[in-house]
Amino acid sequence: MANDDDFLDNIEDSEENEENEETAEQGIDIESRELANKQALEQAQRNLLARKRIDDLMEKKRLKDLLDDSDDW
Questions:
Q1: Could you tell me which of 47, 24, 17, 48 has the C-alpha nearest to residue 32?
Q2: Quick check: helix, strand or coil at residue 68?
Q3: Chain centre distance of CA 33
Q4: pLDDT tens across 22-61, in order?
Q5: What angle do CA 9, 23, 17 make, to 5 degrees?
Q6: 40: Cβ–Cβ under 8 A, 6 or more apart, which residues?
């Protein structure tokens, strides 16, 4: 019977190891998703700032064209 007990202990140990590996893999997946989300958020913020800057420059150019009276003379 001692062999049977050792066999069952080995099965339980291998199941625990598999569970630990799965938990570790899930932790890595979560961390990589969080990092990807953080990077995507940072990129979205940079894109918004760039879009705002482009809009400001285009508005400035439009106003300059409206105020340019060189054709009037």
A1: 24
A2: coil
A3: 6
A4: 777 787 888 899 999 999 999 999 999 999 999 999 999 9
A5: 20
A6: none
Tokens (6 digits) for 11? 């099965």
Distance, CA of 32 to CA of 22 (rounded, Å): 15
Name all contacts of 57-65 with Cβ < 8 Å and 24+ positions apart: none
Percentage helix, strand, coil, to 5, in the chain? 95, 0, 5
In this structure, what token pair is assigned to residue 26? Answer: 């899930």
CA angle 33–52–47, rounded 5-degree value: 20
